């Protein structure tokens, strides 16, 4: 059985690159909405043995308890930063006998249980050692399923998908990429937010994000940003971590 690890930054400071579209309190509420949509998906997957939320944000602890999931403070792990905290969290679980991990981020709001089950099914196939669901640009590593025995260094940041693939292949491990819009759409830039908004207008699958982005004030503002073309001027370089 696989344990999922969900690292989260301070929700108050999250998504600063959306500052031209959303006010600070709106960015914080959006981040929580995305996390809740991801947690909803995780909590619905019976194939997962458990889910560990890693964060120093008190709200993250409350959310973990709300969904019946385990939480640990990043400070308690003694390894700050995304890569350090994920490595420490997986090592802690490995000491408890966990043999396989799914590491994912909290800003993939279109994610649903079926997507996670598909990734787990691919991982269970005999010819696959590591499964990666990259972002839409094949730059970041949105979701990764891997064995503890791989001892793979975590390299989240710019071009992490290529870095994780290279490190795995250097260890003689096979890697399979599984791509879809639902697993690939991580919201960092205004253009990502607009893509999410357009998806939700047609299919409000992400309940918490839909409840936020489809309300009149924010919806009107996003339509204005879309018509102005500002959303297409987002930065090209994207990074993991939320």
What does this structure look like?
Belongs to the CofC family. The structure is a single chain. This protein is α/β, with parallel strands linked by helices and 242 residues long. The chain has a single domain (2-184), classed as Spore Coat Polysaccharide Biosynthesis Protein SpsA, Chain A, CATH 3.90.550. 44% of the residues lie in helices and 15% in strands. It contains 10 helices and 7 strands. It has helices spanning 24-43, 58-66, 74-77, 82-95, 113-124, 160-170, 181-184, 190-202, 207-213, 216-228; strands at 2-7, 48-54, 70-72, 100-104, 130-134, 141-147, 175-177. A 7-stranded mixed β-sheet has the order 3-2-1-4-6-5-7, sandwiched between helices. Helix 1 packs antiparallel against helix 9 (207-213). The two termini are 26 Å apart.
Quick structural overview:
With 242 residues, this protein is of the alpha/beta class. The chain contains ten helices and seven strands. Mean pLDDT is 92; it is low at 233-241.
CATH architecture: Alpha-Beta Complex
In whole angstroms, the N-to-C terminal distance is: 26 Å
Mean pLDDT: 92
Assign the CATH topology: Spore Coat Polysaccharide Biosynthesis Protein SpsA, Chain A
What share of the residues does DSSP label as strand, in percent?
A: 5-15%
Q: What share of the residues lie within helices?
A: 40-55%
Order of helices and strands: EHEHEHHEHEEHEHHHH
Question: Within the largest sheet, what's the order of strands?
Answer: 3-2-1-4-6-5-7
Number of domains: 1
User: What is the number of helical segments per DSSP (H or I, 4+ residues)?
Assistant: 10
- Label the structural class: alpha/beta
The overall strand count is 7
Enzyme class: transferase
InterPro entries: CofC (IPR002835), Nucleotide-diphossugar_trans (IPR029044)
Pathway: Cofactor biosynthesis; coenzyme F420 biosynthesis
Organism: Candidatus Litorirhabdus singularis
